Amino acid sequence: MLPLLFSTSVAVTPLLVADEYAKQVVLEMYPKWYSGKDFTIQGNVGIEKIFKGNDWIQYYGKPSLTYALNKNWALHGGLGYYYTAYQNVNDTYEIRPFLGISHSSKWTDKWTTGTYFRTEERYHYSTGSNNRSNNTRLRLRIRTSYLFNPVTIPNRWHKVTLGVEGFKSYNTDNSLEQLYDYQTNITLGLERSLQKGQKLRFELAWKYKAALNQITDTDISTAFFKIQYYPSWGRWWRNKLRNRDIDE
């Protein structure tokens, strides 16, 4: 059986319109399997719910594969599917193929930095009409971590992480939904090891979205707290990808 990453995120989203707030809840499962020395197979399956204005709920799945080129570089690829059910308008779905490359640098025995660049094509469709749109999005994430204790030592604080991620979208078409040209995520995480190489991550994050050439009340700022559960299967101790902190 594939491992499951169980992630629960509760977000409070202050819009830059005076005193308006939205609440967001995310429940996610993330399977991961270490195959041999060079491969991992993983994927996200989740539900996301927002309570504000035109309430919606989103279901998604995103299987992916990672291949280690050497002890530092790796290739990533996968396919995401997202279905969004709205309260007052037609539902939409999105198909999102992606490719990426990552690099991991180990500065000391305890300090590691990972960089991940990804390009993804987003195809949006409406269930109630023939409307469709697509755009290309680039993503760049830099995450550094400091190790307290190896993950093989159970019930200890494992590591602390700090990450910054930027998004840039091109050929944006807003005919189906509000899309944003720029997005920035800043995350601070603390991990605790469990039994058999499993771990928990407690993550506090801030997310900012902006649409190009739009007035400021279209911008969105989101702060959220996330809890992630990382069990693992396979021979992770032999795998080159085991300590790289490159999540999809």
UniProtKB/TrEMBL annotation:
Species name: Sulfurovum riftiae
Classification lineage: Bacteria, Pseudomonadati, Campylobacterota, Epsilonproteobacteria, Campylobacterales
InterPro entries: DUF2490
Protein name as annotated: Outer membrane protein beta-barrel domain-containing protein
